[in-house]
Amino acid sequence: MRIAGKFQEFIRDALATNYSHDDAFTNKDLRLITTILSLTADFNRDFHSMSHSHSLKTVDKDDFSFGDTTPVSCKSGGITCSVANDALMEYPELEEFIPTDLAIDEPAEDIMEWIGMVRLGSHGMELGTFGPTMLANAFHEQSQKWPAMTEQYIGKVILTVHRFFHKALELACPEPRIREKLKPIILDELLDRYSEGKKQAMTLVAIERERRPYTLSEVFSQNLQASRGRRIANALYSSTRVASGIRVVDHNKIETAITNRSNDIYEKEDIHDILESYYNVACKRFVDNVWHQVVDHVLMSGPTNPLRLFSEQWAFNLDSMKMELEAGESRGVSKRCEALRKRIRDLKEAMDVR
Questions:
Q1: How far apart are CA 79 and CA 103, in angstroms?
Q2: In sequence order, what are the beta bridge partners of 247?
Q3: CATH T-level topology, domain 2-228+262-309
Q4: Per-residue H/E/C for 186-206
Q5: DSSP secondary-structure letter at 246?
Q6: Ranges of each domain in the chain
Q7: Over 50: is that where the pLDDT of 323 sits?
Q8: Are 337 and 325 in contact (CB under 8 A)?
Q9: CA gap 20, 23 in Å, rounded
Q10: What is the model's pTM?
Q11: Considering only CA atoms, which of 223, 216, 222, 197 is closest in space to residue 285?
Q12: Is the pLDDT of residue 245 over 60?
């Protein structure tokens, strides 16, 4: 019980960034929340600059830039093959959580050509507009890197949490013999909790990519109106003149500013502007949801997060497990029950030593 209590005390200090409470926090691997927040800031930046398949042409100056095409590995140090292999050498049990080869390509620069292909592949008999599946098809292809980038980020978070868990356990229980008895008892459920985090993250990816695009955010309409306004302003620029030091345009030029566009060009520009405005909103919403619902809730602070597994309550529950086993069993499960009894005895012995 004392081991579990000390372990949880150490976790509380780490999550509260109370690093002055213990000299062990000079080890950066133990500054859990600081490391996780740094990983999340990298993910946020890389996701906004690299997650789209095709670079969009117009961007609000006050918003994030789609024009940044620096590869992820050059910015935040994505999980490369060598890093992944080193991690798996240290923690082979994390094989299903750490991707070993997820290269993230730079966004292509052929956005209008690509939109034209999407339009031809989805166009119906609409007049002056486009069908409801057009944007869904375009967004689905534009976001095709979301699963890989999300899996990479969650893998780094799980690796960080797992490494912290083991370091904290070493501090709470300095005796190697006792730790080696505790680890196999804890491991299966620990991995199950990691699996819940990964599963939730991929569920969020599916919700964003498989459902029809929609938002209640007013930012979408504001961005869309701004994009359309810029197109009109650009079309009018050649008709402007400078009067008294101010650039002006004749009123009779406004009406014909964009009448020289074909239906094909007009529709492709409209699809582009709607896609850009929606992608902006969806990107921010998704990154926030992954942080709040997966990393913070499932993997760090929620009621069933991995860090709360080895607790005083968990140790108390061992007695209940033992009573249930003794209540009755069939021959078919007797061997499994005996193995579980042995694991319980080992843990109780480890606890008693402390």
A1: 9
A2: 242
A3: Four Helix Bundle (Hemerythrin (Met), subunit A) (1.20.120)
A4: HHHHHHHHHHHHHHHHHHHHH
A5: E
A6: 2-228+262-309, 311-354
A7: no
A8: yes
A9: 7
A10: 0.79
A11: 216
A12: yes
